[in-house]
Specification:
The complex is a heterodimer. Chain A is α+β, with helices and mostly antiparallel strands. Chain A has eight helices and four strands. Chain A is 44% helix and 11% strand. In chain A, helix 2 runs antiparallel to helix 3, helix 3 crosses helix 4 and helix 6 packs across helix 7. The chains are: A alpha+beta, B alpha/beta.
């Protein structure tokens, strides 16, 4: 939290700076833990509820950390028209989490986004900040396996080995 | 460096002339979408090859050339070889070697990689005729996009940049407003309010701080025009903003852009610093008494912030919720002071209008919608990309002549225009001229310019559900109709796509949509009814199929379809579908080797249909779901 104090001091301590402060905290910590929200509230001089109210209004803010591998599935109009929902389904199925969640071992996290403006490459997925263009459901398995995920169907058939993935 | 902008421009001009006429140049488009297609790889490979071969070539990173379907795009000009500039695409790193050996080091134009066909002039020299789209396109906003290096202000200066500002600073602000008024410029953010009217109100407010905001919060899914303009030609927008600030008397400006656009933030930061350095931004601009600076504000991912009063709240550090208007921001805006909020493209056009004159601009387009419209053409169309056409061009020309029509001979179904709160227009509307009023009459809106083409494989009920789902998620929650009304529309539509609705729900949906149109606080909420009303108006038969027959005619809605493998078409020895099915839902008959889908295991992901080799095309979708059983029994019997 000392680092946080140092960061806060670089912004003027007023209500107008709230959004920029929250963005800076998230940039540094990866997400907005409750203690950080309380620190910000007392620094800016408003109630924690108000800070929470602003933070939850905006999609950018996260209240859980990122996984080691973070995936964002675009569900903009073009991506949707080109089958984006099937791509999200595939990620949810393989990772066994829903959009907005993280796996218990903190390896994988998954999100959806309204549009990243790469409509000409639809459907797209952003994995660890790199854009994967023209995705197909079967490519989801490929990219996940490429990053080291043990695929579900292999796991089921190999029975015991599956248990080795940390809970 | 201040004070000698003319000298600087002269120098930039000379360098540019040399670059254009005698230098060997390789232009590579590296906007966000180009990067998605791998343009950074292409760039790196070019750098390596050229360094290795020791060729003296100028590698220039440019923005979007508009032909996004062929990304990564590379334009090479080798004047020594006597060749005109040739555009190549898509060029991945594997093609680089061929281009370097062919056109960069030799005189082989590598025509097999070029875009478009090659023809020969009477004297035998090869040339590439312009693509048909260039005949109807007119690039005012996109003039420099894909041509200049967005991070090099000298390129902008060499193309006449900031000449207009130099002149404007000697002009009465009222004259600037009059020029824009004469151009009859309407705001490019979507609502189409007359820009000059807004400016005049703000200008006539009494002395005191005034603010200028550039709305770059391009939240509409399916739209990417503003991103491209800011990534490809940021100085145009900055110059337009300084001109506008001079006209209304603002001393501080903001560019509010999306958190999802990191490259825009990065490039704008550089562009703003360069503008300050040459003295066109900051204190005493170009030696005049006029002070104006621009601050970059990153949004935090809220669609509602695209609405001007919500954007102002967000810049003030609040939740991005709209407030009732009037008072309009031009009277009571940011921090309670008069504020003008305009779209990215509006500022780019302001620069052009003051450069060429309002009279010139007013002759482009139609009398009520002057100038050009920029569209992001995406979805089920052959040549997706960025398009700029004069207002009044027909939708058909945009989709077929510029966009090259629908791929694989499929049937056009609808064009979704104006963002999520726009409307879906059917085939019969294709000859509509694209302007503010015609689109409004047809039930859509100009919006910010997203144009997504849908074909026979898109379900209109599902499409309406998608937009309403988006709007319900992004609703700020302030007014009742927005918060609860849109949610109710969503629940009804969710029933429809599951085949659970009845005919009464259809009427209820229509009534609700009309009420939402009337009763919402802001125009984002009010137009949330558009996707529902337009699909009901033009595609009622699809709704009825879902409701009455529990059938999805486009074979999209998961709960209303099943996948089925046609035994006569299945090749049997091929195991593509079995091996790729994520849920092991495809069984092989041990005796006949025929494949069969186990419906209780199938998650309807569509992989089997994707991977079944096109020469067999044995996997089909059927609706209603029971049909698969019937087919199976018929085949078995």
């Amino acid at each position: 939290m000392e680092e946080l104090q140092g960061l806060l001091k670089t912004y003027p301590a007023n209500r107008y700076s709230l959004l920029r402060i929250l963005q800076a905290v998230q940039r540094q910590m990866g997400y907005l833990p409750e203690e950080a929200l309380r620190e910000v509230a007392s620094y800016v001089g408003v109630s924690p509820a108000e800070v929470y109210g602003v933070a939850t209004f905006y999609n950018q803010f996260r209240f859980i950390p990122y996984g080691k591998h973070h995936t964002v599935v675009c569900l903009g109009t073009a991506c949707h028209a080109m089958g984006g929902q099937l791509i999200l389904d595939a990620f949810e199925r393989e990772l066994d989490i829903k959009a907005g969640e993280i796996t218990p071992d903190h390896e994988w996290s998954l999100d959806r986004v309204g549009c990243i403006g790469c409509c000409t490459k639809a459907p797209v997925v952003v994995m660890n900040d790199a854009i994967n263009a023209k995705m197909r459901p079967f490519k989801v398995e490929e990219v996940l396996a490429g990053l080291g995920l043990q695929l579900k169907r292999n796991k089921d058939s190999e029975g015991e080995e599956a248990g080795e993935r940390e809970p | 460096m201040k004070g000698n902008l003319n000298d600087l421009r002269q120098g930039a001009h000379n360098t540019w002339e040399e670059l254009e006429t005698s230098a060997l140049t390789v232009r590579i488009g590296t906007p966000t979408c180009g990067r998605a297609a791998g343009s950074l790889d292409t760039l790196q490979t070019f750098q390596e090859r050229i360094a290795k071969e020791g060729v003296e070539a100028h590698l220039i990173e440019v923005g979007c050339m508009g032909l996004c379907f062929a990304e990564p795009l590379v334009m090479i000009h080798n004047p020594q070889a006597g060749l005109p500039p040739i555009l190549y695409g898509p060029i991945t790193h594997e093609h680089v070697q061929r281009l370097v050996e062919g056109i960069v080091m030799g005189d082989d134009p590598c025509l097999e990689l070029a875009l478009g066909t090659v023809e020969f002039k009477a004297d035998g020299t090869p040339y590439i005729p312009e693509m048909p789209r260039f005949e109807i396109e007119e690039r005012l906003v996109l003039r420099n996009c894909g041509y200049i290096d967005p991070l090099n202000i000298e390129h902008y200066l060499a193309r006449g940049g900031y000449l207009t500002l130099q002149r404007i600073l000697q002009t009465e602000p009222e004259k600037v407003v009059s020029e824009v008024e004469q151009a009859r410029l309407r705001g490019r953010g979507g609502a189409g309010f007359h820009t000059a009217r807004k400016w005049r109100i703000c200008r006539q407010m009494e002395e005191g701080p005034k603010y200028l905001i550039c709305n770059a919060d391009e939240g509409d899914p399916g739209a990417f025009m503003d991103r491209v303009v800011l990534e490809s030609d940021p100085q145009s927008v900055i110059e337009g903003m300084v001109i506008a600030a001079h006209a209304i008397g603002a001393s501080r400006g903001f560019v509010y852009t999306r958190a999802e656009y990191p490259l825009v933030m990065e490039r704008l930061k550089v562009a703003l610093a360069q503008a300050r350095e040459i003295g066109v931004l900051g204190d005493a601009i170009l030696g005049s008494g006029f002070n104006f600076d621009i601050e970059l504000v990153g949004g935090a991912g809220a669609f509602a912030c695209g609405e001007e009063t919500a954007m102002i709240a967000s810049i003030e550090g609040q939740r991005g919720m709209p407030r009732p208007r009037p008072p309009y921001p031009a009277v009571y805006g940011l921090f309670g002071e008069p504020t003008v909020v305009d779209n990215v493209k509006t500022f780019a056009l302001v620069q052009r209008i003051l450069e060429q004159g309002g009279e010139w601009f007013s002759r482009i387009g139609t009398p009520n919608s002057t100038g050009t419209a920029v569209f992001a053409l995406a979805g089920r169309v052959e040549q997706i990309g960025l398009v700029e056409v004069p207002m009044g061009t027909s939708l058909r020309e945009v989709i077929y002549t510029v966009g090259g029509g629908i791929p694989e001979g499929r049937q056009f179904k609808a064009v979704q225009i104006g963002g999520p709160a726009g409307g879906c227009l059917p085939e019969s509307s294709l000859d509509l001229p694209v302007d503010y009023d015609s689109l409004q009459e047809a039930g859509a809106i100009m919006g910010s310019g997203g144009m997504v083409v849908l074909d026979e494989n898109n379900c209109m009920v599902e499409t309406a559900r998608f937009f309403v789902d988006f709007l319900a998620r992004e609703c700020c929650g302030k007014c009742t109709m927005g918060r609860l009304g849109v949610k109710q529309m969503l629940l009804i539509l969710e029933d429809f796509v599951k085949g659970e609705g009845d005919e009464e729900d259809l009427d209820l949906l229509e009534k609700l949509a009309e009420d939402i149109g009337e009763g919402c606080l802001c125009h984002l909420g009010g137009s949330a009814a558009n996707p529902v009303l337009t699909t009901l108006r033009y595609f009622r038969d699809e709704y009825e199929a879902h409701v009455k027959e529990k059938r999805c005619p486009a074979l999209v809605c998961k709960d209303l379809i099943t996948y089925y493998i046609v035994p006569e078409k299945c090749e049997r020895a091929c195991d593509h579908c079995v091996l790729t099915c994520p849920t092991e839902a495809i069984a092989t008959d041990e005796r006949t080797r025929l494949k069969k889908i186990l419906q209780d295991k199938c998650v309807k992901c569509g992989t089997c249909l994707d991977v079944c080799p096109p020469e067999y095309s044995a996997v089909i979708k059927v609706s209603p779901p029971e049909k698969a059983k019937e087919l199976e029994e018929a085949a078995g019997g």
